[in-house]
Amino acid sequence: MRIRMIMVTEMLVAIMTMRMMIAAIADDTNGVFSPCEDSKVQKSDGFTFGLAFSKEEFFFFDNIQLSPCENRLGLTSKMAQLAVFRPKVDEISLLTINGSIPITAGGSMVAFAGRKYAARSFPVMVADGQNTITSFTLVLEFQQGTLQNLYWKSFGCDSCSGESAVCLNKQDCAIPTSKCGPTGCSLGIQLAFSGKDKNLEALNSWYEVNNLRQYSLYGLYSDLRNSITGSIPGSVPSQ
User: Fold this and answer.
1) Which residue has the higher pLDDT, 49 or 16?
2) Nearest-5° Cα angle at 25, 20 to 28
3) Tens of pLDDT, residues 68-92
4) Do residues 153 and 137 make contact, with C-beta atoms less than 8 angstroms apart?
5) CA atoms within a 13 Å half-sphere pointing along the CA-CB vector of 209
6) Structure pTM?
7) What is the rounded distance in angstroms from the CA atom of residue 141 to the CA atom of residue 195?
8) H or E element: which one contains 177?
9) Could you tell me if 160 and 68 are in contact, meaning their C-beta atoms sit under 8 angstroms apart?
10) How far apart are CA 15 and CA 22, in angstroms?
11) What is the pLDDT of residue 21?
12) d(Cα 94, Cα 4) in Å, to the nearest integer?
């Protein structure tokens, strides 16, 4: 795996970003941008899904877990928070969520997409009254290009680092919420794909993540960000 660090001017960044957006649109055949609609995708398409933050019990109706798209849950009136992402199919992505959203919304998180199939993950704890889990791995499983399942994977606490690191339930790395600062902790979600796309091509990024499970992309991102900001005169590293 190669990581290339380049420092460029703001104008060059804008030009490169525009070119990347044009290229991404040209390769993207998926016209569905809502996480509450169904789509069939192929490699290089964008795929839209959501993350809902609330209390765990709010994701259930009559003891049955429903998709956050389901109005019967009434998540809007319960002050739930929503984040929407559109990663590229079968590329390993690192999603980041800044601030204290998970804590103020209730401490639990569900990933979801689709209407007819209404795929959703089990609720996973992000934060309780004492600790915040800052690193997650989410796998999106497809069959013939249609999302069937989303599930969280945990690789234990071998990758926990730092003096404040806490191992929860022998499987999740966390830090005391009191160490997060006034704006809360940033969450890092490693995203990967499995199954087959609509052309029956295998989606392999999950196997790559699984083979590299001893490494944390979020930890690598944090180290890289601190390295870059620390090398620029007058810049202040993010907390």
Assistant:
1) 49
2) 120
3) 999 999 998 999 999 999 999 999 8
4) yes
5) 27
6) 0.77
7) 5
8) none
9) no
10) 11
11) 47
12) 16
